[in-house]
Amino acid sequence: MGLRMEKTSNNDEFKHMPPENVAKYLTQMQDQMRYLGIEAKPLFRPSAFRLNANVAKIAQDMGLLLALHPDIPIEGKAERVDESKIVYCTANPPFSPLGVGKPYTEIVYHACEWDKSYLDDSKTLELMDFLGEHRDAFVSNFFFMGDLLDGQE
Question: Looking at the structure, do residues 66 and 2 belong to the same domain, yes or no?
Fold first, then answer.
């Protein structure tokens, strides 16, 4: 059976996770994706963007790109964390509005219907309008998150 979290509260599991469990938990996540046949960039966006410095460092040591929010700091001493392996979102509707970011635009929606930032029909139309309105900003300069670190900026 899977590894259980010792302490969870309102999406803080990666903020409170002890270092000895981090690699095991992240490995289980990767194993689940392989088992399900899901191919994706080596990316880790912690719940509610919250994590501590140990989790950030261990995830990066495992080759994972961190996807974080610029207004939610890594808790603890983060000087060991490699900032060049972090991509910060520039929009998280409805919490932070759509906009063209500099040097990149990183938009995050939630996959669960119960979350306010779920990409529902209304937000999909809003995103389509936004992309159409700012087409020139994206047509020649569109990358998936992992490509931002591959020197293709």
Answer: yes
